[in-house]
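Troubleshooting: if your tokenizer reports a length mismatch, compare your output against this known-good record of 102 residues.
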Amino acid sequence: MNTLSTVAKVSEIREGEMLAVDVAGTKVALTRINGRLHAFDDTCTHAGCSLADGELEGTVVTCPCHGSRFDATSGAVLGGPALVPVRSHAVTTAGDDVLVEP
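Known-good structure output:
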């Protein structure tokens, strides 16, 4: 059974911005879109760049290295060169704590 890890404070996750955190040894990007928190693997499946260093427009994350695009809400590939989606993670809150499933 996977357990949730406290990785940030709700107040640290600003609307339309991304924050990279460590979840049980995996780099995960956190973002808030339309008031809802989302978490996905921070590493682009094409060349391993940090997605949190990229651009977020609406629900679309663009990798800063080669321009691969992913859906921040599901991890789906929206545009190459990446072919493999990034894994999304369950995220919840407890008070001001943000908890993410590994």
